[in-house]
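Worked Example 4.2. Consider the chain below.
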Amino acid sequence: MSPDHRQCVIPGCPREGRNKLGVRCRVWHDQPTAHGKGKTAALWAPDADAFLCDEHALGGATITLLYEPDSSGRTTVRVIGARHVEPRSVQIKERGS
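Applying the procedure from the previous section yields the following structure tokens:
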């Protein structure tokens, strides 16, 4: 498939993956914050390099989230249990950056 057309990450699925997986951490309070972001703003939101076809995106799934703090200043997403997907990381932005 071309870079514009990704295969669905579900093993054995031959369909095009048109829906990208990602994870988001949102501020969920109204108190002042050191990062200057308001309620519902994303602190970070890395996308995985993993795509789902419409059928698998809308058919239901169980997502197991394992959060491993590492003091790196980055957030990395790994997709496990699917076709091999390279981990993707994003720098966590501080206030004013």
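Residues 6-91 form one domain. The chain is about 5% helix and 30% strand. Compare this with Example 4.1 before moving on.
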